[in-house]
Amino acid sequence: MNDVICHDDEPVIEKESVSTALIDGKNLLGAAVGKFAMKIAIKKAKETGIGMVTVHKSNHYGIAGYYSLMAADEGLMGMAFTNAAPSVHQPRSSDVGIIGTNPISFATPSSASGSNENQFVFDAATSTVARGKLELARRKGMKLPHGWGADVHGKETDDPNQVLNGGGLLPLGGADESGGYKGYGLGLMVEILCGVVPGAAFSKNVRKWGHTDRIANLGHCFIAINPENFAGSGFHGRMDELMGMQRGLTPMKEDEPILVAGDPERIHMRKCSQQGGIPYPTAVIQHMNELADRVSVAHMTVL
Questions:
Q1: Average pLDDT of 171-188?
Q2: Can you spell out the DSSP letters for 270-301?
Q3: Contact at 8 Å (CB) between 83 and 164?
Q4: Residues with Cβ within 8 Å of residue 70, at least 6 apart in sequence
Q5: What is the rounded CA–CA span in Å between residue 207 and residue 297?
């Protein structure tokens, strides 16, 4: 892979205590490193009640929620964070891209019956949206909603081309007066946990998106917690009650029921199962087929 990403090594534990560890990702694929690290956090949580593992010298690890669900599947609460290529504006600055989209994920275990219907699974960027949604809007020829992105001068724009060509994303909340400082603060929290704490690259030191002039040296943080080490038995019943309270709220529109984190994904998964495949916009299928032609592989199978 032209030395940009290593493929013939293994991540290693560089330092550890009974409930913490620091992992050297050896510049491997982030997904492999992330799974390795969360497994260690899970093991430590089962032994001591909590496990926290940080990583340096890694790469893009994919879906943050995958790792928090790893812990949830073991009866634990799971948290996963990662920093990313700088692409998010500081709401009061005209400088382009100071921190990454820096996602946060948190998941609770399934109910006592084994059902995942009341499982809380939160996974979100600390920017208003992830970069992929802007790319999709550009392919579909759509304007951006308020608070999504800014141009090269840091001014808010509804043109995805201006955001993707030299501009940047806005933090969760958008502009400063609409609460963007909160999203920016959450993004900096992730930058501290994933960049400063493990000794990875952070903020403007992270390699820019699409560049391969040096290794990314991304950082991650994984936390697994055993809820039974706190209030003891009854956690699942309290979670069921909490989720029921939220879903029992009166919706403003009858055809738009109240959802909690994890519900949209469960609904979508059932839809995909019923349809026998994953629905994609025509523009995305066309883009993927053009990419397939470039690398001489078969087109996507369309049902």
A1: 90
A2: HHHHHHTS----HHHHHHHHHHHHHHT-PPPP
A3: no
A4: 35, 38, 39, 42, 78
A5: 29
